[in-house]
C-alpha cells in the first residue's frame, strides 16, 4: 500500500496494534494502516460517535478557538466558514458568534441534527450537496480530522475546491514525529485503529498540501501531553484518563497566569523548532 500522504511505495512494516498492521513511510514519515477499514466498519464506528456528547466546550479550549476565529478575519470576504468533521460544533459556534455563516460536515447523525438545530448548514456528503458551492468559502477548517480518513489527499483537494482563491485552510492532526511517538511507539493512544487510520508527519502535510494546490503559510508542532509517559513510568491501578482529558487539564493549568502563558509559548516554540510537538497545526492559502 502506498503512503496516503505522499504516495510513496517506500513504506515498511512498523508495528501491530489491535490486530492491525501499521506501516511507516520512509519518505515523509507518515504512519498508517496497511489495510484501510471497510466502509461498513467506518459507518458503524461513527454512527453513534456523538450520541452522548455534552456539547460543552472546555474552558481551556475556548481562548485558542477564539484566537483562531479572530485571525481568520483577515481572509473574510463572503463570510462563509466550512468545518469538515465539525464534531460537537465548538469552533463553528464561536465563528457564528463572530458573524460567520457556518457550514459543516459530519458522519454522525446526532452531530448533524445538533448542528442543524444551531443554525449551521450541515451535510454528511457535502461534495454532492449544492448548498456547498465550489470556491464559495473564505475558510475551510479540518480540526483533528485527517487522522480519521484513509485518503487525506482527496480531502485536501476537496478543501481546495471549496475555498476561494486566497482563502484560508486551517488544520490540526496528531504528529507522527512527536516525543510521545518516539518514546511510546505504537503504545501511544493516538494509534487507535480503526478510528485513526493515517498519522501525518510534518513532511507529509507539506507535500500533500502542496499537491492539493495550497501555499503553506505556517506549520507548527504544538503541545506535549505527558500523561501517558507518566503512566508508563508510574503505573497506577484504575483506568487512565483519556489523552484529551489530560490535555485539557494541562492546558488549563499552564494558561492561568501571564507567566505561565509565556512559558507555554516558549515551550511550543521549541517543540516547533524541533518538530516534535504532539499536534501538527497548519495554516495555508489556496493558490
How does this structure look, described?
It contains ten helices and eleven strands. It has 287 residues and is an alpha/beta fold. It has one domain: 3-Layer(aba) Sandwich (Rossmann fold), CATH 3.40.50.150. The strands form two sheets. It has a seven-stranded mixed sheet with strand order 6-5-4-7-8-11-10, with helices on both faces. α2 packs across α3. The longest helix is centred in the C-terminal third of the chain and has 17 residues. The protein is globular and about 50 Å long. The chain starts with 10 loop residues before the first strand and ends with a strand.
Strand adjacency order, main sheet: 6-5-4-7-8-11-10
How many structural domains in the coordinates?
A: 1
**How much is the average pLDDT?**
92
Rough shape? globular
* Rg, Å, rounded: 18 Å
CATH hierarchy class name: Alpha Beta
CATH architecture designation:
3-Layer(aba) Sandwich
What is the gist of this entry?
This protein has 287 residues and is an alpha/beta fold.
Features:
23% strand; single chain; alpha/beta; 7-stranded mixed sheet; Rossmann fold
Topology, element by element:
Elements: E1 11-17, E2 20-25, E3 31-33, H1 39-47, H2 62-71, E4 80-84, H3 90-97, E5 101-105, H4 109-117, E6 121-123, E7 137-143, H5 152-162, E8 163-174, H6 179-184, E9 198-199, H7 202-211, E10 214-222, H8 227-233, H9 243-254, H10 258-274, E11 279-286
Parallel strand pairs: 4-5, 4-7, 5-6, 7-8
Antiparallel strand pairs: 1-2, 2-3, 3-9, 8-11, 10-11
Amino acid at each position: 500500500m502506498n503512503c496516503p500522504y505522499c504516495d510513496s511505495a517506500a513504506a515498511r512494516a512498523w508495528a501491530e496494534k489491535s490486530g492491525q498492521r501499521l506501516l511507516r513511510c520512509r519518505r515523509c514519515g507518515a504512519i498508517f494502516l496497511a489495510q484501510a477499514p471497510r466502509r461498513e466498519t467506518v459507518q458503524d464506528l461513527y454512527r453513534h460517535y456523538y450520541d452522548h456528547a455534552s456539547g460543552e466546550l472546555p474552558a481551556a479550549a475556548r481562548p485558542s478557538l477564539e484566537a483562531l476565529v479572530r485571525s481568520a478575519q483577515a481572509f473574510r470576504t463572503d463570510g462563509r466558514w466550512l468545518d469538515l468533521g465539525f464534531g460537537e460544533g465548538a469552533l463553528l459556534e464561536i465563528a457564528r458568534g463572530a458573524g460567520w455563516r457556518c457550514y459543516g460536515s459530519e458522519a454522525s447523525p446526532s452531530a448533524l441534527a445538533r448542528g442543524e438545530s444551531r443554525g449551521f448548514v450541515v451535510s454528511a456528503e457535502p461534495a454532492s450537496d449544492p448548498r456547498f458551492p465550489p470556491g464559495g468559502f473564505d475558510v475551510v477548517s479540518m480540526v483533528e480530522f485527517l487522522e480519521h480518513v484513509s485518503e487525506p489527499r482527496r480531502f485536501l483537494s476537496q478543501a481546495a475546491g471549496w475555498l476561494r482563491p486566497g482563502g484560508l485552510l486551517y488544520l490540526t492532526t496528531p504528529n507522527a514525529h512527536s516525543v510521545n511517538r518516539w518514546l511510546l511507539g505504537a503504545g501511544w493512544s493516538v494509534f487507535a485503529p480503526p478510528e485513526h487510520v493515517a498519522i501525518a508527519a510534518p513532511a507529509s502535510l507539506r507535500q500533500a498540501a502542496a499537491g492539493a494546490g495550497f501555499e503553506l503559510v505556517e506549520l507548527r508542532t504544538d503541545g506535549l501531553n505527558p500523561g501517558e509517559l507518566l503512566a508508563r513510568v508510574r503505573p497506577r491501578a484504575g483506568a487512565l484518563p483519556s489523552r484529551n482529558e489530560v490535555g485539557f487539564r494541562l492546558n488549563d493549568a499552564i494558561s492561568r497566569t501571564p507567566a505561565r502563558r509565556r512559558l507555554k509559548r516558549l515551550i511550543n516554540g521549541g517543540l516547533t523548532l524541533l518538530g516534535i510537538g504532539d499536534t501538527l497545526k497548519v495554516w495555508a492559502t489556496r493558490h
